[in-house]
Design a protein that fits this description.
The chain has a two-stranded antiparallel ribbon. Helix 1 runs antiparallel to helix 3. It contains ten helices and two strands, in the order H-H-H-H-H-H-H-E-E-H-H-H. The protein is globular and about 55 Å long. By secondary structure, it is mostly helical.
Length: 276
């Protein structure tokens, strides 16, 4: 993939994330008042990564909506910055970092439960939406994993094939996941099956991603990838806190960790390819 072709991906990411921001801003005034009641009707606290730490804090009714908003803002801001600073930089890893940030627009699906209170629609759409949300989350994890594999030396000419393979593999899994459209957790996401298995898979991919950046640091003889490895760890941790937030603690800490981790990855990758 040429730099010019890759830049079209960057522009598309900016447009998509901006449109999601507009939609969310348009609906926010009517959706926000619905969150306290819907959170009280949740079956149990949200899970995922270190989200269980939130059980030591009281639930905040507006935290799930704020998490959706911050996720979309994150996707937009990171997409804009990558398009601005990597426009002429031949960095194969950054495409997958951009896809990782773009995956956060799928978090807007988290408004479906309150949206159904305003506009009654078939429960089948909740099932489809939840599967799309699962798809987006795993696409993001695999994208960041792919960026580390490229850093470690994967063939740079096969980016399009890698993206297609990722999409197909995740779709096959997402379409088979059982979803309960009648119940949701405290982050207002519908219940889905195999949650423990997926959390284990995400943890394994996080570990492999960090190790791959460390391998890149050793094989290429540059310490920049050491900071990228640290950034990947912070990014995964912050993402784990943010996407399932039902407290202000997980929301704030997750946002800070996610922003810090992304900064480490993007700045260090830019320095690696700065003079190419």
């Amino acid at each position: 993939m040429t730099v010019a072709q890759r830049n079209w991906y960057f522009k598309g990411a900016v447009i998509l994330s901006f449109l999601c921001l507009v939609v969310l801003a348009f609906l926010s005034r009517r959706l926000i008042p619905l969150y306290p009641e819907l959170q009280e009707l949740s079956f149990h606290r949200s899970q995922g990564g270190l989200q269980s730490l939130g059980r030591f804090f009281a639930m905040a009714p507006l935290a799930p909506f704020a998490a959706v908003g911050l996720s979309v803002v994150y996707a937009f801001v990171v997409s804009v910055l990558i398009a601005r600073f990597f426009e002429k930089t031949p960095c194969p890893e950054i495409l997958f970092v951009d896809l990782f940030s773009l995956s956060f627009i799928f978090e807007i699906i988290g408004i479906m439960a309150p949206l159904r209170s305003l506009y009654p629609f078939p429960s089948e759409l909740l099932i489809v939406g939840t599967r799309l949300l699962i798809f987006g989350r795993f696409f993001g994890v695999l994208s960041l994993f792919a960026s580390s594999v490229y850093a470690a030396g994967l063939d740079m000419q096969k980016q399009g094939q890698v993206i297609i393979a990722m999409v197909i593999a995740i779709l096959v899994v997402a379409l088979r996941i059982p979803v309960n459209s009648q119940s949701w957790d405290s982050s207002l996401v519908m219940f889905s099956g195999y949650s423990s298995m997926f959390r284990f898979a995400e943890s394994a991919l996080m570990l492999i991603t960090v190790v791959s950046f460390l391998v890149a640091a050793y094989s290429r003889g540059t310490g920049e990838y050491l900071f990228a490895a640290l950034g990947a760890f912070l990014t995964f941790l912050g993402r784990s806190f943010l996407i399932g937030s039902d407290t202000w603690f997980t929301l704030v800490s997750g946002t800070i960790l996610l922003a810090a981790g992304t900064w480490f990855i993007t700045v260090r990758l830019h320095r690696v390819y700065l003079w190419l």
